[in-house]
Write a structure and sequence with these properties.
This protein is of the alpha+beta class and about 190 residues long. The protein is about 45% helix and about 20% strand. The protein contains eight helices and eight strands, in the order ααββββββαββααααα. A hairpin with a 5-residue loop joins strand 4 and strand 5. Helix 1 packs across helix 2, helix 4 packs across helix 5 and helix 7 packs across helix 8.
Length: about 190
């Protein structure tokens, strides 16, 4: 059950095997059904999770009272309402299970205890934060610099097994386009 998380931790080339074995004990398995909201805006996020299986979306409600999907999280990735997790302030976002999901969850207190347990865990935390920042910057730049077609092609290229499981309205929102535009793109690419 924890093999994917172990592989993620090993891939950083920062942690020793004993540090990994110690650290994975803090992560608890949790399952959620499709449609479950893991956190709602206005709450404080006290957890981070590794996605073993399933797809989640992070979204917020715009000033026009529309749901805007700004993040899709696929297996073998970390997920949280990160700004709330870090600052312990209320989150603006919601995290919603698009499919049944299997997570390995670590509570904030345990996460910080782990970071204080060794310099390598602190280095790993920095590494994970840097990777999350790079992903966020790439997403922002893609929205501003790339065409919708290119964004859709990239999503298909890197996550081909999951695209069909995401409802069109969420996929279109994530790509920053209308459902009609997405339907045209799909026909054009097929």
């Amino acid at each position: 059950m924890k093999e994917g998380l172990i592989n993620l931790l090993k891939s950083s080339n920062i942690l020793t095997d004993s540090e990994i074995n110690h650290g994975i004990q803090y992560f608890e398995h949790q399952s959620f059904k499709k449609g479950k909201t893991l956190i709602r805006s206005g709450n404080i996020c006290n957890w981070m999770a590794f996605v073993n299986a399933g797809i989640l979306r992070n979204y917020y409600i715009s000033s026009k009272a529309e749901e805007v999907t700004y993040c899709l999280t696929f297996p073998n990735r970390l997920i949280s309402a990160f700004s709330s997790f870090i600052t312990q302030k209320e989150t603006f976002e919601n995290i919603h299970a698009l499919t049944d999901v299997e997570l390995l969850v670590i509570q904030r207190k345990d996460y910080y205890d782990l970071m204080n347990s060794s310099k390598n865990w602190l280095k790993f935390s920095r590494y994970a934060s840097e990777q999350a920042y790079i992903e966020m910057e790439n997403r922002l730049l893609a929205l501003q610099m790339e065409s919708a077609k290119k964004r859709y092609e990239d999503l298909m290229k890197f996550n081909p097994n999951y695209i069909q499981e995401i409802p069109l309205k969420y996929l279109a929102s994530y790509l920053g386009i209308t459902q009609r535009h997405l339907s045209r793109l799909r026909k054009e690419i097929s």
